[in-house]
């Protein structure tokens, strides 16, 4: 048929039967035909508009030329009176709730009513019922009601056929992020069912299908602009807060201070949560990933961050024990890189793990599986179990710089520290004193000569340098970096009773990066001519690149408790301008 019918049986095919050599038909038979156009439509070309019958709507492909619709997990919370994300219920709270969903349109054209016994249904496979939900606007004239028609416990829905040329609008929400057992693709079908006979189920004579991919959760590297800095207020960090506030004001972003009532004495903001975002052609919003560490801050993400257009996800292990490596100081992401011609336009996730040859601490499998399943920021596992706390942010970070490479990688380096100290000793400053102005536990007078003559410390730091170099090689290979892309910041470590490493003086690589403003842990290095030579050395390396160094005193409030500035802060950043669906994983 070339076009839809205006009424039932308005087309006819006649078949005439002839005898041999006869001019007139012996008999005639007729078949009455009804033409109905049915098209289930989505935004398959990813321009934010639902187009008509895109030929590629039932497949999903990656890349700039790719096709296929996109779905957001509706993991924010529009309704302030419920304690969970919108995707946990089967209701639409407000117009804003609909904006988080993707539109799907069922277009039909045909006679005023379907022939007797025929019906149209929308349905989803059983395996997708916990991954997608569909709402339909009922009765748009008197007080709108959005009813839940597909999803949990609802596998099919009979669609009311309205006749003539009609468009029925549906709203689709994602319920689950891609994971080890779920590749992120969901399918919705529309079928026309034909009756056979009384008491026999109808059968589909036509089916149209659409495929959605659920948008992955994407992390934001230090090279993206900061929006809000999160930090805790605890009983002994008043001065630290003041310094961070000044830095944030200088960088021109906002600051969110989590009160003692909310954090219950837990100051490690970096470890409890990680900020990222999700994005579709029609909408995007930030999403916080809550770590299974669950310290004093464990309710912070749900109570203070989850809200309208701010989503929430968590992954909790069922059987594994949670270790320090599950804290998100151990979850970082590189800036965009190209490795042997393969592009990673959204960077690569970095997680710390144990040395492959002996059983050590690893990030729990549920979190690792979740990160790998997002596909667009292919993770790299580093070796961080040699540290007492065991986080990657203790030995590596990234800073933005103008220019083609757009960033440098900074690494903690004992050998850079020994080199600097030996040079100062040769210049006659061997008696320069460290930790000046800090009246902490180690009040023994520490000088350059003492550090250089301490054989045990020299050996321990040789070991640490080897652990860092092992990671340096992995990072160079997996991020496609050369030596000129790396800057070594002086650092010293000492080993604890278990043979794991701790920073000897505040570890500068554990800094907060706010565009060109760096908040660096104040190292309390040897004072020469009224200046700390370690600070001076770091500033000489970083300031020529157009960065501004602010040294923040965190020694008693963070360093003494085995963390630094980065561990105690967290930054929500702007999303990438690059669209994740243009990635080719």
From TrEMBL:
One cellular component (GO) term of this entry: nucleus
Chain ranges of the Protein-arginine deiminase (PAD) N-terminal domain: 1-34
All residue ranges annotated as the Protein-arginine deiminase (PAD) central domain in the record: 36-194
Pfam families: PAD, PAD_M, PAD_N
GO molecular function: calcium ion binding; histone arginine deiminase activity
Domain Protein-arginine deiminase C-terminal: 205-582
Reaction(s) the record says it catalyses: L-arginyl-[protein] + H2O = L-citrullyl-[protein] + NH4(+)
Superkingdom: Eukaryota
Enzyme Commission number(s) of this protein: 3.5.3.15
Subcellular localization, as worded in the UniProt entry: Cytoplasm
Keyword Calcium among record annotations: yes
Family annotation (InterPro entries): Cupredoxin (IPR008972), PAD (IPR004303), PAD_C (IPR013530), PAD_central_sf (IPR036556), PAD_N (IPR013732), PAD_N_sf (IPR038685), Prot_Arg_deaminase_cen_dom (IPR013733)
Keywords carried by this UniProt record: Calcium, Cytoplasm, Hydrolase
Coiled coil (residue ranges): none
Family classification: Belongs to the protein arginine deiminase family.
Name of the protein described by the UniProt record: protein-arginine deiminase
């Amino acid at each position: 048929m070339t076009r839809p019918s205006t009424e039932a049986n308005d087309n006819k095919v006649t078949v005439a039967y002839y005898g041999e050599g006869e001019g007139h038909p012996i008999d005639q038979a007729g078949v009455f035909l009804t033409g109905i156009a049915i098209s289930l439509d989505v935004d398959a070309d990813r321009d934010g508009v639902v187009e008509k019958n895109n030929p590629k709507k039932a497949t999903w492909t990656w890349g700039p030329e790719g096709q296929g619709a996109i779905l957001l997990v509706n993991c924010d919370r529009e309704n302030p009176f419920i304690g969970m994300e919108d995707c946990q219920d089967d209701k639409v709270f407000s117009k804003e709730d609909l904006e988080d969903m993707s539109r799907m349109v069922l277009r039909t054209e045909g006679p005023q009513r379907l022939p007797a016994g025929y019906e149209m249904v929308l349905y989803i496979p059983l395996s997708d019922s916990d991954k997608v939900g569909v709402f339909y606007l009922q009765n748009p004239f008197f007080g709108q009601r959005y009813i839940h028609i597909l999803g949990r416990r609802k596998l099919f829905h009979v669609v009311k056929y309205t006749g003539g040329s009609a468009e029925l609008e549906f709203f689709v929400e994602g319920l689950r992020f891609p994971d080890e057992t779920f590749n992120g693709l969901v399918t919705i079908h529309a079928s026309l069912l034909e009756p056979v006979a009384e008491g026999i189920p109808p059968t589909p004579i036509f089916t149209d299908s659409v495929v959605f991919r659920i948008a992955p959760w994407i992390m934001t590297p230090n090279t993206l602009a900061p929006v809000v800095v999160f930090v805790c207020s605890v009983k002994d960090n008043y001065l630290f807060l003041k310094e961070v506030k000044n830095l944030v004001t200088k960088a021109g972003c906002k600051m969110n201070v989590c009160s003692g009532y909310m954090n219950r004495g837990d100051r490690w903001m970096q470890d409890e949560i990680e900020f990222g975002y999700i994005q579709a052609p029609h909408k995007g919003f930030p999403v916080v990933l809550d770590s299974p560490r669950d310290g004093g801050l464990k309710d912070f993400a749900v109570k203070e961050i989850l809200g309208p257009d701010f989503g929430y996800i968590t992954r909790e292990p069922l059987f594994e024990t949670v270790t320090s490596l599950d804290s998100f100081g151990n979850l970082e992401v590189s800036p965009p890189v190209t490795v042997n011609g393969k592009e990673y336009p959204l960077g690569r996730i970095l997680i710390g793990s144990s040395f492959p040859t002996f059983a050590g601490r690893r990030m729990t499998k549920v979190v690792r599986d979740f990160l790998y399943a997002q596909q667009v920021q292919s993770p790299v596992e580093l070796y961080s179990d040699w540290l007492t706390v065991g986080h990657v942010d203790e030995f590596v970070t990234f800073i933005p710089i103008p220019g083609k490479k757009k960033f440098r990688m900074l690494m903690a380096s004992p050998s850079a520290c020994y080199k600097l100290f030996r040079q100062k000793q040769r210049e006659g400053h061997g008696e320069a004193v460290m930790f000046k102005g800090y009246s902490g536990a180690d009040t023994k007078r520490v000088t350059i000569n003492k550090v250089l003559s301490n054989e045990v410390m020299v050996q321990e730091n040789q070991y640490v340098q080897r652990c860092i170099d092992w990671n340096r090689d992995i990072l160079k290979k997996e991020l496609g970096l050369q030596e000129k892309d790396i800057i070594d910041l002086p650092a010293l470590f000492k080993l604890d009773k278990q043979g794991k490493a701790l920073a000897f003086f505040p570890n500068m690589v554990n800094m907060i990066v706010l565009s060109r403003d760096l908040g660096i842990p104040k190292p309390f290095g040897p004072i020469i001519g009224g200046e700390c030579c370690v600070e001076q050395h770091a500033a000489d390396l970083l300031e020529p690149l157009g960065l501004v160094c602010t040294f923040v005193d965190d020694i008693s409030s963070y360093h003494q408790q085995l963390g630094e500035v980065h561990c105690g802060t967290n930054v929500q950043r702007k999303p990438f301008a690059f669209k994740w669906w243009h990635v080719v994983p």
